[in-house]
C-alpha cells in the first residue's frame, strides 16, 4: 500500500506538469490573468533549476523549493493553491503548499507551509504519515479563514510505544491589509534562524517588531518582507 501511495503521489504531480493560465479576481475585485509555468528555468548557476514559477502582469514568483510542478487549485476565484513535492531523502516523501493571491497588481504569498511527510515507504516495520489539508471558508477578504486539518500517524512494530494516530485542526485568519493567513504575531529571538529556499541554507535574521506567524504541530513559519520562511530547527 505504501508503494502504491508513493506512485500515486508522483503520478499526480507529473500529470499537471504544463503551463496554464488562470482567470482570477484580485482582492480588490479586478479580473486578472495568472500564468503558471512548470518548465525548468535556470535561476542560479550554482543551485540549479526552478520547476515552478508564477507570472501576473510584470510580477513573477519563483517557487524555489519545488522539486516538480505539482498540482494547482483555484479557491473562490481569488486564490491559487499549489501542492508540490520538495526534496527529501531516501524513502522519504515531502511536500509543501503555497497559496497565492493578487493585490494591487502584485502576487502575494498568502500562505506557505510543509503539508506532507511520508517516511520509510518500503519498511514493513515502520511507517510515518503526516498530511495537512486546507479548506477555505468565507467569500470576501474580510471574512476569509483557512482551516488546517492535520493527520499525524506513526506505526512501528519494533517500538509500539511510539505509535500514534491523531487528527487535529487549526484555524488561520486572513489579514486583508497584509494579504496573508496567519494565527498569531510573534517577536522572534535576535538573531533567529530561518531556511532560505533559494539557497537551501539556514540564514540568520534580525527584526525588532512582531511578525505574523503560522505556528502549529511543532511547525513555525515567519512572514518577512512579503514572503513566508520556515524557522530552522534551532528555533523550535
Any overview of this molecule?
Mean pLDDT is 86; it is low at 1-17. Strand 19 (219-224) and strand 20 form a beta hairpin. The protein has one helix at residues 2-15, and strands at 20-25, 31-37, 41-44, 48-50, 53-56, 59-62, 71-75, 79-86, 92-103, 106-119, 126-137, 145-156, 164-175, 180-182, 184-186, 192-196, 201-205, 211-216, 219-224, 227-230. The radius of gyration is 18 Å and the shape is globular. The chain has 236 residues and is mostly beta strands.
Question: What descriptive keywords fit this protein?
Answer:
disordered N terminus, eight-stranded antiparallel sheet, 236 residues, mainly beta, four-stranded antiparallel sheet
Please describe the biggest sheet, giving its number of strands, its sense, and whether it closes into a barrel: 8 strands, antiparallel
Instruction: Supply Rg.
Output: 18 Å
Low-confidence blocks of residues:
1-17
Shape: globular
Number of H/I helices? 1
Helix-strand sequence = HEEEEEEEEEEEEEEEEEEEE
**Average pLDDT metric:** 86
Amino acid at each position: 500500500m505504501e508503494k502504491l501511495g508513493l506512485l500515486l503521489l508522483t503520478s499526480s504531480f507529473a500529470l499537471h506538469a504544463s503551463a496554464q493560465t488562470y482567470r482570477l479576481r484580485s482582492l480588490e475585485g479586478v479580473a486578472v490573468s495568472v500564468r503558471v509555468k512548470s518548465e525548468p528555468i535556470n535561476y542560479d548557476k550554482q543551485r540549479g533549476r526552478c520547476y515552478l514559477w508564477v507570472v501576473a502582469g510584470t510580477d513573477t514568483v519563483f517557487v524555489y523549493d519545488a522539486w516538480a510542478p505539482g498540482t494547482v487549485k483555484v479557491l473562490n476565484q481569488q486564490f491559487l493553491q499549489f501542492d508540490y513535492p520538495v526534496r527529501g531523502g531516501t524513502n522519504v516523501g515531502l511536500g509543501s503548499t503555497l497559496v497565492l493571491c493578487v493585490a494591487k497588481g502584485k502576487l502575494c504569498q498568502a500562505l506557505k507551509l510543509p503539508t506532507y511527510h511520508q517516511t520509510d515507504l518500503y519498511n514493513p516495520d515502520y511507517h510515518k504519515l503526516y498530511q495537512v489539508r486546507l479548506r477555505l471558508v468565507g467569500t470576501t477578504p474580510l471574512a476569509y479563514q483557512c482551516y488546517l486539518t492535520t493527520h499525524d500517524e506513526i506505526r512501528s512494530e519494533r517500538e509500539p510505544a511510539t505509535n500514534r494516530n491523531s487528527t487535529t485542526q487549526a484555524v488561520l485568519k486572513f489579514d486583508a491589509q497584509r494579504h496573508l493567513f496567519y494565527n498569531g504575531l510573534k517577536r522572534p529571538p535576535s538573531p533567529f534562524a530561518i531556511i532560505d529556499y533559494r539557497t537551501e541554507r539556514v540564514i540568520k535574521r534580525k527584526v525588532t517588531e512582531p511578525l505574523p506567524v503560522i505556528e502549529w504541530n511543532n511547525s513555525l513559519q515567519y512572514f518577512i518582507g512579503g514572503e513566508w520562511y520556515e524557522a530552522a530547527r534551532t528555533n523550535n
